[in-house]
């Protein structure tokens, strides 16, 4: 069993109901391998966390950036993308705590960007259920919104290149 207390220290939140964190760290393949209900995996928490993340980032951008809607949408997309969220999850060591099936483990699931991104959202969803919106906001601000300018500059350049290629019929 993983030491979830260390993970709680890393994320700066102590769960009242540790089973929420354990579920947030349980990949569907692990639940399937144990033949338990799929709701005992992170998918439902990820669904909730995704919506909460979008709300928190949207509110932040609305209050801090005096931009038109289209620009705010692009900024939000650059912040909540797989690349960014997986980097944060990797830096927090989520790959060390995720519970995977043997097959998923053997194929590199602990480092897979899509899984790490899902874990960010599932932990956020678990945090919200356990403690409400305030700890969820604090977590997102600390780990995602602390360096908005650097994160959005990188993705604005990427978006600009993609838009240029699409406009001019070119491939990346």
Helix content: over 70%
Uncertain residue ranges: none
The quaternary state of the protein chains shown equals single chain
Q: What is the number of strand segments? A: 0
Helix and strand element order: HHHHHHHHHHH
- Evaluate the radius of gyration: 17 Å
What is the count of helical runs? 11
Question: Care to give the gist of this entry?
Answer:
The protein is 72% helix and 0% strand. The chain is mostly helical.
Task: Write a structural description.
The chain is mainly alpha-helical and 172 residues long. Helices cover 72% and strands 0% of the residues. The chain contains 11 helices and no strands. It has helices at residues 4-11, 18-24, 28-33, 43-64, 69-79, 82-91, 94-97, 102-106, 113-131, 133-143, 148-167. Helix 2 (18-24) packs antiparallel against helix 9 (113-131) and helix 4 (43-64) packs across helix 9. The chain is globular. The mean pLDDT is 87.
From the structure above, extract its key features.
172 residues
Topology:
Layout: H1 4-11, H2 18-24, H3 28-33, H4 43-64, H5 69-79, H6 82-91, H7 94-97, H8 102-106, H9 113-131, H10 133-143, H11 148-167
Helix pairs in contact: 2-9, 4-5, 4-9, 4-10, 5-11, 6-9, 9-10
């Amino acid at each position: 069993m993983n030491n979830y207390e260390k993970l709680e220290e890393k994320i700066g939140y102590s769960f009242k109901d540790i089973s929420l964190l354990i579920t947030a760290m349980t990949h569907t393949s692990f639940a399937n391998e144990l033949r338990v209900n799929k709701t005992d995996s992170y998918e439902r928490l990820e669904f909730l966390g995704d919506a909460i993340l979008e709300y928190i980032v949207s509110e932040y951008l609305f209050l801090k950036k005096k931009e038109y809607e289209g620009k705010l949408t692009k900024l939000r997309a650059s912040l909540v993308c797989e690349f960014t969220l997986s980097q944060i999850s990797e830096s927090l060591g989520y790959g060390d705590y995720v519970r995977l099936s043997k097959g998923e483990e053997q194929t590199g699931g602990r480092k897979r960007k899509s899984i790490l991104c899902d874990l960010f959202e599932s932990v956020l969803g678990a945090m919200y259920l356990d403690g409400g919106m305030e700890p969820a906001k604090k977590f997102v601000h600390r780990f995602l919104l602390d360096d908005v300018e650097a994160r959005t500059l990188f993705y604005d350049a990427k978006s600009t290149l993609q838009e240029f290629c699409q406009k001019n019929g070119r491939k990346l």
